Amino acid sequence: MESSESINTQTPVVPLKRDHVVILVHGIRDYALWQNDIRAELEDAGFKVELSNYERFNLLAFLEPSTIFRRQAISEVWEDIKTIRQNHRDADISVIAHSFGTYVIARLILQNFDAVFHRVIFCGSVIRYRYPFKRLQNQFTKPILNEVGTRDIWPAIAESVTVGYGSAGTYGFRKPLIRDRWHNRAKHGYFLNRKFCRKFWIPFLRDGTVVESSEKPERPSSILVLLSIFKVKYLAMLLAALMAVWIWQQKWPFWPQKPYPIAAYLGTWQNQEQTLGITRVTVREEGPDVLVKIWGSCRPTDCEIPELKGHVYGASVQARAVDEVRAVEAELVESYANRRFILRLLNENTLSVEARTRFIDNSGRSDFQFTDTLEKTSN
Asked: DSSP 3-state assignment of 148?
């Protein structure tokens, strides 16, 4: 195969019929120094060249799924393009975009009906296979040229790891309105030099001529096949789900709990761990009241707090509190501190007790809070 650096084809300079501006849009982890070489080659061929820049886009910003950083880059490039159009009102406007730059241009075409380009060249594309080219075909001269590197792993990684990206730079689009051009053994930056531009891009920009690459596409490597089969983002979702299940099984007190009838709270609850906090709790009904008795860790025997009247909190304003209990709260008021105990059922056999102490004696001691988990030992 010809390497990109060994291409020596010379393109004769033919005057353009009208001004033709080519915008260069770079990718991630890139100071876009390649733009200087491509600019020089295009200007030698009679094109005008403008650069767009959203500064160096790091890998974390590229992979971050909420698209906050992506939207900022798209906005900056759109402002650049609008400025270029204002200063070249009668010119054809074409674009060459690399890597994340292809995502930026694709989003601009999708989001702005007046984002119209003469010719579009993508290389190292991270655009999704299902991008709606058909619906947007009036915003570019057909076809879009998509350069495919058979050993370009980055589009495949982007699609595998996070959301919003595709791997057209690795596997091609293979769809109407797009011309995929394959380059064997080509990696992510293979296209970004003067000789490649001279042979492949200038003829296309000038009159739509697609110079064929010289070889039949090679099969993807084992790594690329694995990336296409096992999506890392889905594995991450699975791990997150497993973590959620584990958290629930650990009965962590911050996990949202369903309501239980007050009868489920009644009984004796024992702390199964060595603790300096709450060791035992009993909950019982006496007429309309719910009474809570608490023991704390002391030596040689546990300290006993006087039985307290509990206040029942229902699941909603419409719910009958004793039928759908979210929590039972008991308060102990002493001369030096106010103590609140909040009881929540994690399941039918596990009770979370949160203790909050607020000092009122001006002693300077810090208020504090802790939570213990107890298991039911008797009804």
From this structure: strand
* CATH code linked to domain 4-240: 3.40.50.1820
Question: pLDDT digit string (tens) for 125-155?
Answer: 999 999 999 999 999 999 999 999 999 988 8
- How are the residues of the chain apportioned to helix, strand and coil, as percentages rounded to the nearest 5? 30, 30, 40
Residue whose pair of structure tokens reads 């959620």 in the numeric block: 244
**212-233 residue pLDDT tens:** 986 788 887 777 777 776 777 7
State pLDDT tens for residues 236-281.
777 878 887 776 655 554 555 688 999 999 999 999 988 889 999 9
Q: Which among 72, 96, 90 has a CA at the least distance from the CA of 18?
A: 90
* Phi then psi dihedrals of residue 320, to 5 deg: -80, 115
Domain with CATH 2.40.128.20 in the chain: 262-378
Quickly count: other Cβ atoms within 10 Å of residue 307's Cβ.
14
CATH of domain 262-378: 2.40.128.20
Alpha-carbon gap, residue 196 to 9, rounded angstroms: 9
